[in-house]
Write a structure and sequence with these properties.
170 residues, alpha+beta, DHBP synthase, 8-stranded mixed β-sheet, 6 helices, globular, DHBP_synth_RibB-like_a/b_dom, ATP-binding
C-alpha cells in the first residue's frame, strides 16, 4: 500500500478545512471525501447525481470519534476494529438518526481525520455506475489538485453491517 506523503497530507488537511470535496485513497477504494457536515454531504451527493440528503459513510480515526455518532457496543467495537474494513450502521440511544461509521486503518488517512475530524467518504462515481479506479478517470471527475492518487486500488468496497436490523448488507 502506497501512503500519502507529508506534503499531500498537509494539502488534504488544508482543503478539507476549507470544506472542499477531495478524492482520497481509503482502505478499500478511492472516496469522495469532505468534513462530515450537512453542506458537504449535499456537495458530494450533487457531484454523484444522488439525492442531496442521501446518507454517506463517515470515516473516523478512533473509537472516541465513533462514539459521537453511535453507541459503541461490544459488537460495534469488534466490527469497527475487525481486520476487514467494515462499516457499521447504528445510532445513539434515544436518537432516530442512523449513521454508517468506519474506523480507518490507513495511517495517512487517520492522521488527516485526527486533524480535521470525521469525514464523509463515498465511492467516486456517478450514482449506480461503477466506482472509478485509475488516475485518469479520478482526475477527470474532480480538479487534479483535489485528487490524491497513490496507486490503482482494485479492492471491493467495505463490508457493511447494519446493527439496527442485525444483518450484513454487503
Amino acid at each position: 500500500m502506497v501512503l500519502l506523503n507529508e506534503e499531500q497530507i498537509k494539502r488534504a488537511i488544508n482543503l478539507l478545512i476549507k470544506n472542499d470535496v477531495i478524492i482520497l485513497p481509503t482502505d478499500t477504494i478511492y472516496g469522495l471525501s469532505a468534513r462530515a457536515i450537512t453542506d458537504n454531504q449535499n456537495k458530494i451527493n450533487n457531484m454523484k447525481k444522488s439525492e442531496l440528503n442521501k446518507p454517506l459513510i463517515i470515516l473516523v480515526a478512533n473509537v472516541e470519534q465513533a462514539k459521537r455518532f453511535i453507541d459503541l457496543t461490544k459488537e460495534a467495537n469488534d466490527l469497527l476494529n475487525s481486520k476487514e474494513p467494515t462499516t457499521v450502521i447504528s445510532k445513539l440511544k434515544d436518537s432516530q438518526t442512523t449513521y454508517a461509521i468506519r474506523l480507518v486503518k490507513r495511517d495517512d488517512i487517520k492522521e488527516i481525520i485526527t486533524k480535521v475530524g470525521p469525514i464523509y467518504s463515498t465511492s467516486v462515481n456517478i450514482s449506480d455506475e461503477p466506482h472509478l479506479k485509475n488516475k485518469k478517470d479520478l482526475e477527470e471527475f474532480i480538479d487534479m489538485d483535489h485528487c490524491f492518487f497513490t496507486e490503482n486500488l482494485e479492492n471491493s468496497p467495505s463490508n457493511i453491517v447494519d446493527l439496527i436490523l442485525n444483518k450484513k448488507k454487503r
